[in-house]
Amino acid sequence: MVDNVIFDLCGVLVDWRPRLALEGLFPADEIDDMFADDDHCGFMYFDDLHDRGTDYVDLLPDYENEYGPHLAAMMRAYADHVERTLTGPMPGMPQLVADLRRQGVRVWGLTNWGRDTWPIMASRLPRLIGMLDDVVVSGRDGDGAAKPDREFFDLALARFGVQRTSTLFVDDSPYNVDGATAAGLQALRFTCADETRCWLADHALL
């Protein structure tokens, strides 16, 4: 039985497209390198540090020391244009959240996101975030923890006051889904609103 649903934000509730921060400012091949899967430019590694509470003002000098001035200029541009990456809600998700709430299901948010850039997210999507009962933000609330760390899930469960065995966690990252499962939650890999809605309907939540 599920009586609470915790949603990831970026890639689940929020359409987050990191390339958009740099498009028009740098050549396409350099942007490809910055976000390459092998992370040879260190974006994902430093983004994780940012999600865990290191503000950009402290992060950027260390990034420049490791990767040099040109890549640092790209990372600085990303930090300066985070708002471009947030294009709006994921299709179908605001209605899904509203439908859950109408059924009496409490709905929460759990996101890996920086402390210094959370006000940008909150101001870009106030109606969507306002639909949630509460949101735990790694950079603001995690004290160094973030998904998929068990302690971050434990923190969220305690903050929300919910039971792990009756709580569903929805995330697009398989690592975060595995982390939630290891922490004792029910977990669902997000692909789209329609498939999520079908799962919820099959489990009598909608």
UniProtKB/TrEMBL annotation:
Concerning Gene3D superfamilies, the annotation shows: HAD superfamily/HAD-like (3.40.50.1000)
What SUPFAM superfamilies is this protein classified in? HAD-like
InterPro entries named in the record: HAD-like_sf, HAD-SF_hydro_IA, HAD_sf
PANTHER family given for it?
Answer: ALPHA-D-GLUCOSE 1-PHOSPHATE PHOSPHATASE, FLAVIN MONONUCLEOTIDE HYDROLASE 1, CHLOROPLATIC
Q: What is this protein called?
A: HAD family phosphatase
